[in-house]
What we know:
Elements: E1 24-29, E2 32-37, H1 38-42, E3 47-51, H2 58-76, E4 80-85, H3 89-98, E5 106-108, H4 113-117, E6 132-136, E7 142-147, H5 154-168
Parallel strand pairs: 3-4, 4-5
Antiparallel strand pairs: 1-2, 1-5, 3-6, 6-7
Helix pairs in contact: 2-5
Amino acid sequence: MATLLAVPAAHAALAPGAKAPDFDARATLGGKEYDASLAKMLKSGPVVVYFYPAAFTKGCTIEAHDFADALPQFHQLDTQVIGISEDPIATLDKFSVSACQSRFPVAADPDGTITQRYDAKLPIRAHHANRTSYAIAPDGTILAAYTAPDPDGHVSRMLDAVRTWEKAHPTSG
């Protein structure tokens, strides 16, 4: 049984304890495209999936830098990180190199299907995701969800959620 962490948020779309929707998407890491699968990622441990409005905007670039800087901490917890936006993959090829520093993948959701399934659509702007982060246990259970327009706090909340889960599952990673 997963340990759940409720994270206060302006609006956390899918609640802790819910099953995370599986997805397959075209992703890029360091400008090299590949097909990403949440199910495959979860086989090696927890996954942080974070949605962001648009590549190369100020807040999204800050958030990508923050996740890139924290990646060693996530890796110590056997946790992968993937960002998702409704940007085209060609834009994300560049964003993955610059903002993500070629440290973690970003996936394209050009039709918004994944964003919609995660209830992470930005209500006031079409074709943009809300800034929403999820920590997901290897069994697909959402451990924590956090939605806030400010990029600050997303990384620390997801790290806290995975650390809390890890303490309850010390032999799982």
